[in-house]
Amino acid sequence: MSSGAALALRAAKNGVNITKLALHEPSFVVKEGDRRPPNDFLNHTIELIANNNLAEAIKYFMTKGMGAPSFVVSMMRIMPSVWSNLMAVAHTLPYDAALLDGYMEDPASE
User: To bridge 53 with a disulfide, which of 45, 48, 78, 87 should be the other Cys (CB 3.0-4.6 Å)?
Assistant: First the structure.
């Protein structure tokens, strides 16, 4: 549920010598009516990180961006080392959001 699938597809499209890809849950909107993040998803993610609201940024990214139910975030907080690992890389969430930008809009709006 991050930018890895988008990054791999972009690399393949741009000529990187890739013969096979296994993509796990790319966060793409592929049909009208799919759940999509708020219009200001990228900007709000950047703002949360800039204000050092790391925990809120993780919650926002997971629930509003990726569509995870809020209880998932609560469970992550109590899982050994999961939350601390997420907090350690939370500052990279704007990069994930930027790589997904353009793939999460309703296709009918194009």
Answer: 48
